[in-house]
Amino acid sequence: MNKEHFQILLEDLYEKYNHTKKSDVPNLVEKYNGQEFDAIKTFYFKYNFKSNANYDQKAGTDEYIKNLIVNYSNGKRPIKDNLNPPNPEEESLSAIKKGTEQANVEINNVSETKKEELLKLADEKIKSLVIIIQDKEKKLEDMIQRMDAMIQEKAQKIEDKIKRISEESLELLTLNKNSKVEDEEHVEIRINLDYAETDIELPKEVRTMATGTRFLMLDQNKKMLAFEIKDIFCDYVSITGKFIKEINIQRI
Questions:
Q1: What domain range is 44 assigned to?
Q2: Sign of CA dihedral 200, 205, 207, 213
Q3: What is the average pLDDT score of the chain?
Q4: Does the N terminus or the C terminus of the chain have fewer Cβ atoms within 10 A?
Q5: pLDDT score of 182
């Protein structure tokens, strides 16, 4: 895949999932030149989650990404095509044109006595199609208004969630500053990892990550791996004077 096709693919991805970051594309093209698969895999991991309005369950799989690379390398743009469905108004206008042309053919093939009747029929068809267009325009306007309301509602929920997370993070930082819960003399950390293909060294930050946290890393062979903190269990009973913190990590 050349740089031009790679850039078009990234632009279409950001246009669908996060158009505000579209300006990052040139830098990403240079950074991931020759590593297009990893770049696209990372993008879907970051943006294609269930709460995203454009979430696609099939997107992000290895086979899906390979097909994207093949299509864009051949000049096709399936992501952009799916973002631009046929315009209802254009379809209706095309139907009007087709109906008018058909009426004109009929007029040319009949006697003069039938022309007036056919012209009247064509006029009725046009009026009927105009009504259809007006109805479609009204439905389209209503749909846009509903989408705007939904977007505003989702944006407010995201803003509230960010605010809540910020408050919780501040509270957690304050708590950590005023107490020594993670002091090695009082805490025993146990990490359970369901991945044993190669030896990997997990980042030390997993000790303080919360349940549901997802993260990317490379193994010793520079292979990209994705993990998620599935659950955390704290045991204050087994060892006197200490508590055991078990962190269960799963590859995704």
A1: 3-85
A2: negative
A3: 86
A4: C
A5: 52
Asked if residue 200 is part of any domain, the answer here is yes
pTM comes to 0.37
Instruction: Answer yes or no: is 66 within a domain.
Output: yes
* 132 within domain boundaries: no
222 is written with which tokens? Answer: 């520079």
Sheet with 243-251, side-by-side order of all strands = 187-193, 243-251, 224-235, 214-218
Place of tokens 């708590």: 175
Q: Which of 8, 26, 48 is nearest to 252 (CA)?
A: 48
Is residue 164 a part of any domain in this protein? no
- Report the domain count for the chain: 2
**Nearest alpha-carbon partner for 125 in 139, 109, 111, 104:** 104
Span 18-50, pLDDT tens digits: 889 999 999 999 999 899 999 999 999 999 988
Domain boundary among 70, 85, 100: 85
Q: Give the H or E element holding residue 198.
A: none
Residue 26 identity: P
- What is the Rg, in whole angstroms, of the alpha carbon atoms belonging to the chain? 29
